[in-house]
């Protein structure tokens, strides 16, 4: 029986093989079984892209590409709404912003396009 290496990210011993990849079920990290073990860089920020694949950065201006209903309210963010000075965050809604007439909110990058 072959012993698989522990996860380089969280040191979990419950790793498993998935083709040529090793997978950690606890943190979800995947790495190559063929390459030498290396820890992912904690300083590397994830790349966030808009709906058409443009890389977004803090301070960018974006346009909403779909009507977005706001949960718990009757307000709607209309198509074509321009959002200035966005701030990128980690999580499900990866853009924090302020929209005129609505206020502070989180948006998903898949519903915006960089101007």
Gist?
The protein has 115 residues and is an all-beta fold. It has strands at 16-18, 21-23, 30-32, 62-64, 68-69, 76-77, 82-83, 87-88, 95-99, 103-107, 112-114.
How are the elements arranged and paired?
Layout: E1 16-18, E2 21-23, E3 30-32, E4 62-64, E5 68-69, E6 76-77, E7 82-83, E8 87-88, E9 95-99, E10 103-107, E11 112-114
Antiparallel strand pairs: 1-2, 2-3, 4-7, 4-11, 5-6, 8-9, 9-10
Observed structural traits:
three-stranded antiparallel sheet; single chain; 115 residues; mainly beta; elongated
What does this structure look like?
- The structure is a single chain.
- By secondary structure, this protein is mainly β.
- It has strands spanning 16-18, 21-23, 30-32, 62-64, 68-69, 76-77, 82-83, 87-88, 95-99, 103-107, 112-114.
- The strands form four sheets. Strands 1-2-3 form a three-stranded antiparallel sheet, with no helix packed on it. A three-stranded antiparallel sheet has the order 7-4-11, with no helix packed on it.
- The protein starts with 15 loop residues before the first strand and ends with a strand.
- The mean pLDDT is 88.
- This is Zinc ribbon domain-containing protein YjdM.
- Residues 3-32 form the Protein YjdM N-terminal domain.
- InterPro entries: YjdM, YjdM_C, YjdM_N.
- Residues 48-115 form the Protein YjdM C-terminal domain.
């Amino acid at each position: 029986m072959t012993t698989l290496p522990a996860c380089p990210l969280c040191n979990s011993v419950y790793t498993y093989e998935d083709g040529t990849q090793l997978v950690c079920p606890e943190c979800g990290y995947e790495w190559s079984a063929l390459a030498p073990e290396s820890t992912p860089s904690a300083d590397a920020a994830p790349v966030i892209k808009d709906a058409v694949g443009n890389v977004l950065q803090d301070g960018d201006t974006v346009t909403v590409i779909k009507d977005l209903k706001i949960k718990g309210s009757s307000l709607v963010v209309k198509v074509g709404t321009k959002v200035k000075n966005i701030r990128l965050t980690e999580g499900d809604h990866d853009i924090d912003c302020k929209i005129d007439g609505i206020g502070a909110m989180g948006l998903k990058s898949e519903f915006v396009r960089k101007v």
